[in-house]
Amino acid sequence: MKPKMTVPQFAVLSLGFLLLGLFAIRQSALPIAHPETPVEWHMALRFEDGPQGEVVVLDARDNQEITRFEGEQGFLRGTLRAMARERKRRDIDSGPSFELLAHPQGRMTLKDNATGQQIDLASFGPSNLAVFQHIKSATHKN
Q: For labeling, which of 24, 44, 62, 74 is most exposed (least CB within 10 Å)?
């Protein structure tokens, strides 16, 4: 006779499946911004690797450097890697620009017009959002 599963074992098993499901969802797609959110500011951008491994942010209109990020920059690189992965999956090269959008209440979206993918940057917390807020503020200095 097979022993019955107790409630605590069932709860632990259910929680494990829930966490596994959340992990799978998190790995498969980044948060999508709400398209109906008004846009207060936007700019077309390109991102390139610099000669010392830094991430160089360029104005897509004239290829002028806006700013550069040195060091690991995990969130910035991870965001760009996720978008590049979607482009590669669709056989789209790195030529098309990205669009950085600012919305009310400090929300920001990074949009890839080539794939339609949008990432709600505020959903990753204030320190990660600050990376992209720096790009916006740097455009006002140039």
A: 62
Residues facing 68 on adjacent strands: 56
| Residues 22, 14 contacting (CB under 8 angstroms) | no
Name the strand (E) or helix (H) holding 127: helix 126-141
Between helix 74-89 and helix 126-141 the angle, nearest 10°, is: 90
Q: Which pair of structure tokens corresponds to residue 46? A: 């390109």
Location of structure tokens 């069932």: 10
Closest CA to 108 of 29, 26, 45: 45
Scanning the chain, the segments in alpha helix (DSSP H) are 7-28, 74-89, 126-141
Residue 115: exposure state from Cβ atoms within 10 A (0-12, 13-18, ≥19): middle
